[in-house]
Specification:
The chain has helices at residues 36-42, 45-51, 94-100; strands at residues 4-8, 13-14, 17-20, 23-30, 59-65, 70-76, 104-108. It has 125 residues and is of the alpha+beta class.
């Protein structure tokens, strides 16, 4: 029996984003604290760099904020030179956070009740 399901990151977390120059900051915030360890294990610098490979980030740096069940990902040189230098406006701001939220995650079935959009979702305490 398969003890995991593959789902997009947006079922486990939400994201906010910002950009400055040629750098994008993407936050990932768990919908529920029970999902935090899965995020730490799978939303790694390497996984994010691979997910954004077509954008060719020079570096991905991850900062963990465990008290908030969140992380900040900084992608360097990912905005085609920066907002003011690029004609590719779709590559900036919210578009990158939505793209990140499509990252496939392997979730243990035992954590399925904590997913966003699940009727049986426990209350956050």
């Amino acid at each position: 029996m398969n003890d995991y399901i593959t789902i997009p990151l947006y079922r486990l977390a939400h994201s906010r984003t910002g950009d400055k120059g040629n750098r994008s900051n993407l936050s990932v915030i768990a919908w529920h604290p029970a999902l935090w360890e899965v995020l730490v294990a799978q939303v790694t610098e390497a996984a994010v760099a691979q997910h954004f490979a077509s954008r060719q980030p020079r570096r991905v740096t991850r900062y963990l904020l465990p008290a908030l069940h969140a992380m900040n990902l900084v992608l360097d040189d990912v905005l085609d030179g920066g907002v003011n230098d690029s004609l590719n406006l779709d590559g900036h701001g919210k578009a990158l956070s939505y793209w990140l939220l499509d990252l496939p995650i392997q979730l243990p079935i035992s954590l399925q009740p904590y997913l966003a959009g699940t009727d049986a979702q426990p209350a956050i305490s």
